[in-house]
Specification:
With 201 residues, this protein is of the alpha/beta class. It has 5 helices and 7 strands, in the order E-H-E-H-E-H-E-E-E-E-H-H. Bound molecules: inosine 5'-triphosphate. Inosine 5'-triphosphate is lined by residues 7-9, 12, 41, 71-75, 88-89, 96, 101, 121, 154-158, 170, 182, 184.
Length: 201
Amino acid sequence: MKLLIATNNAHKTAEIRAILGGHFDEIFSLKEAGLDIDVVEDGDTFEANALKKAVEALRAAEGIADAALSDDSGLMVDALGGAPGVHSARYAGEGHDDGANNRKLLEAMRDVPDGARGCRFVSAVALARKGREPIVRRGTAEGVLLRANAGENGFGYDPLFYYPPLDKSFAQMDAAEKNALSHRYRALSALREALEAERNS
Ligand code: ITT
């Protein structure tokens, strides 16, 4: 199966490629396919947005790809009622500015005491395929929102996301560590299981 990774986020592309490895005959990104699509993410849920991105990308990749895989993801903070949630990429305004998003989140969480700083990363992945029902799966990773950035790796909210089982933030993990336990890894693993179950049925 020729798989298009339907994201404009280069960090996500790298993570998805690393996690899915040899599970598809050919994997390529929007950029590699020379496709420039910008899907309006107006769904209320990660799943709705992921599905919309995958379906629109597959349509744009007619003749190039057999399937398109998307990810819609974000950080949900308990003390903020689940914000920034589906608005994670643009929390501080249009433009995908990770630094500005993180500063806004730190400010919003300034007076929230230790013990009430629970949060989770959520990833919904969607696989759209020619002539078959789409598959959508969710993965989550539970953590604690830090009071200052920790670590230099990763992207987005990784420096603020403390992961208790490894006693480090996502940005203090190397790529292999993060990709073995992240929300994206869990969503993609569930997707792979669904594909295997389909093959064996
Ligand atoms: P595409 O829609 O093109 O895939 P995007 O970056 O706009 O790219 P989303 O709309 O799904 O993607 O927004 C996801 C945002 O959530 C992302 O920009 C980060 O701010 C945050 N995020 C998601 N996964 C993350 C991760 O693994 N580490 C850190 N931040 C993450």
